Amino acid sequence: MRRIDDVILRPLLTEKATALADAENTFVFEVGSLATKIEIKEAVQQLFSVRVTDVRTMVVRGKNKRFGRHFGKRSNWKKALVTVAEGDTLDFYSGV
């Protein structure tokens, strides 16, 4: 099994992710590209002491960008939408 910090890279705190957390108790994370749904579920349960009911993943394709007069491509990355059980919640703002 991979280490937890190789599975969960960071939470994504956007307007859309905050709305999902409020409406559906679903939280969004950037995860390692080789992480599986089972590894993501176990890592979130260990890190935050919550019960995970569902994990959905997607690969976000990197955009084509211009760097001066040269063209390049940003790297692809993986996103996970993690739904936690009713009554459980994650608070990313407590340390701020």
Sheet with most strands: 4 strands, antiparallel
- Using only C-alpha atoms, the radius of gyration works out to 15 Å
Shape: globular
Number of helical segments with 4 or more residues:
3
Secondary-structure element string: HEHEHEEEE
Report mean pLDDT, rounded to a whole number: 93
Q: Class, according to the CATH hierarchy? A: Alpha Beta
Secondary structure: number of strands:
6
CATH topology: Alpha-Beta Plaits
What share of residues is helical?
25-40%
Low-confidence stretches: none
Shape-level CATH architecture: 2-Layer Sandwich
What percent strand?
35-45%
The side-by-side strand order for the widest beta sheet comes to: 1-2-6-3
Q: Distance between termini?
A: 32 Å
Question: Number of domains in the coordinates?
Answer: 1
Class per helix and strand makeup: alpha+beta
Question: What's the CATH H-level homologous superfamily?
Answer: RRM (RNA recognition motif) domain
Quick take:
The chain has 96 residues and is of the alpha+beta class. The chain has a single domain (4-84), classed as Alpha-Beta Plaits (2-Layer Sandwich). 27% of the residues lie in helices and 36% in strands.
Describe this structure as you would to a colleague.
With 96 residues, the protein is of the alpha+beta class. The chain has one domain (4-84): RRM (RNA recognition motif) domain (Alpha-Beta Plaits, 2-Layer Sandwich). 27% of the residues lie in helices and 36% in strands. It has three helices and six strands. The strands form two sheets. The protein has a four-stranded antiparallel beta sheet with strand order 1-2-6-3. Strands 4-5 form a two-stranded antiparallel ribbon. It is globular.
